[in-house]
Structure formats: C-alpha cells, structure tokens
Amino acid sequence: MKIRHIPCQPHCFAFGGFELQMLATIEATRKCGVDVAPLDFWEREADFDIIHAWGLINYYALYWAKKGGKRIVVTALLSNPESISEKARFYLSRVFGTIRSRLRVASLVDAIVVVNEQDALDANRYYGISKGKIHVIPHILDNVFLSDAFSEQNMSSYIHCSGNICQRKNQLNLAIACARLGEKAVFTGNVLPGEDRYADELKNVIKNNPGIVWHGGFSENSPELLKICRESSIYALPSFNEKQPISALEAVALGKPILLGDRAYARQKCYKGARLVNPASISSIEDGLKDIRKNSSIYCVPKKYISACSEENVGKAYRAVYESLLT
C-alpha cells in the first residue's frame, strides 16, 4: 500500500495549521507502517495506489490519477454557511465561483476526511458526497500536550491567542477588548500573506498598550511557545471562521478556560463548554472575558474527547481509510 500526498498549495506561499496537519499526518501514518510520501510531480513512474490531496483543489492532477486507476482520498476543510446571506453567497458560488470548482473535485473522491461532524453533514448536504465515503478524523495534537506532567504549570494572568495574524482570526478585536479591560495579552503567530494592513492596525493597538505583546517567528512547539501556552490563564480565539483550531485543542489539554467565536466550529464536541462570543462585537468579547475572570472553571472544556487526537490514533484512523479502499 503506497500513498502519495499533494499539498493544498506550495508551502512557500502559505503555511498554517492545515499544512502542519498534513505533515503530522504523513508522519503519523508512516509510524503505522504505511508507505507514504509527498507526490513527486516530476517523476514519470506512478507506482503507488492512492493519491491523498489536501483541499478540494488540484482537479486535473486528481482527474488524471482517477483515469490511471488510482484511488483518491481528500482531506478538506469545508465551508459552513450559517446566515441567510452566507448561504446565498455559497449557492451563487456553486454556479459562478470557487465552490463550483470544488464540486468537480468532490465528484472524483473515493473517500473524504473531515475534522468534525458538521463538516461531515455538509460534505453530504452541499457537496453531494455519499455518506459512505465520508470519514471524521480529528486534527493531531502533539504528544507533549497529552502528557500529565506537561499540564502541571505555574499560571500567569495573561490571555493567550495563537494563530497567523489575519482578519479571519480577529486578533484586532480581541486586542481592543483586552486594552479596554486593562488585561494583559500575548499574541503569537506570523502575518498571513496579504494581511499586512490588518497587522499594522494590531501593532497600533499594541503600541499604545504595554500590557499587550505580540511574538512572531516561533516554530511550532518551540520551548518559547510551549512556555507561553502553559503559563497563560485564558486562551482566546474569537475567530470568524475555523475548522478545528489546534491551539484551542492544546488549551483544552492544558485545562485552560477558553473563549471562542460563536460560530459552527466552536460548537463541536471537543470545545463544548467554552465561552462563546460574537466575534464582530468588541463588547461581546469584553463580556466573555469578564465572565471567565469571574468563574474560570465553568469555561474549562472536558478533556474526554482529545484522546482521539493523539498521533497514534489519528495515524491508525487514516490507515483504516486507506485499507478500506484497497480491499
């Protein structure tokens, strides 16, 4: 059984949590005995069984793979339209926009992997993928966060927010809310390409509020980043749109009270109990932070679901998907 992977895009152009998960999945399945590697686009030999694409893109690569008798697995983060306007834009995009091209890819898959139950429903409802082809496998949580010893910590009073700086993740509104409340906050993450103006707005807030700091350039699970995660008192990510933010899973493992945007991603079972806020409202974010300060234990999410996120369990789950296509 040989598996070859195709990334969503070249990592030199954009690299974030989805790309980290691809690399972690490759390593996890390799440890489970799977012959797995990135696809070499320049190699003319096609001596593999399954092509595993990340994202509902790369239509022509998958089209020719299908013609060549290869099985197609896709791991995808799907749109979850909630409001009437979002649903209207989604259906228009099915006819005229990017969703139309994704539907073409969806028609080729033998199996699709999504990270939560909402995406599983939407894969069937909006993308027409039969339920038998849909598999729910969570993101991988680094083993260091699953260690009981690591969860023992000396907490400081600051709020932590981790992730690439961009409008979608909404760090600016969180920073303004923290500034109004006089809260200390630490932001970690690099600027996403094309988000320089948004990053400048965040810098302006930080410049006028010495209790708020921003660290960029940390590699994943670096000692500096792990120290910030461990010593924070609250994890906050009032994002407009996510799938299964790894940093929030890490906060669950560490027993931190959690604040998230009141959107579909925050309602999956692994975040049940977090304080949800309107990400468009700075006042709502302020109220959420004040509620957590009053009684933090109420907003600590139970850890019972994160065992499925271990490297071993995720690797075995992907291996089972591959095996099901070859038997």
General description of the model:
The protein folds into two domains: 156 residues, Rossmann fold (3-Layer(aba) Sandwich), CATH 3.40.50.2000; 164 residues, Glycogen Phosphorylase B (Rossmann fold, 3-Layer(aba) Sandwich). The protein has a six-stranded parallel β-sheet, sandwiched between helices. Strands 9-8-7-10-11-12 form a six-stranded parallel β-sheet, sandwiched between helices. It contains twelve helices and twelve strands. The N and C termini lie close together (11 Å). Helix 1 packs across helix 12. With 327 residues, the chain is an alpha/beta fold.
Strand order of the largest sheet: 2-1-3-4-5-6
Major beta sheet summary:
6 strands, parallel
- Looking at CATH, which topology of the largest domain would you report? Rossmann fold
Helical content class: 25-40%
Q: Identify the CATH architecture of the largest domain.
A: 3-Layer(aba) Sandwich
Total domains, how many?
2
Q: Mean of residue pLDDT?
A: 93
Which structural class do you get from the secondary structure elements? Answer: alpha/beta
Beta-strand residue fraction = 5-15%
- The separation of the N and C termini measures 11 Å
The CATH homologous superfamily of the largest domain is termed Glycogen Phosphorylase B
Could you list the spans in which at least 5 consecutive residues all have pLDDT below 50?
Answer: none
- Total of helices: 12
The CATH class of the largest domain turns out to be Alpha Beta
The rounded Rg comes to 20 Å
Number of extended strands: 12
SSE pattern, N- to C-terminal: EHEEHEHHEHEHEHEHEHEHEEHH
Globally, the shape reads: globular
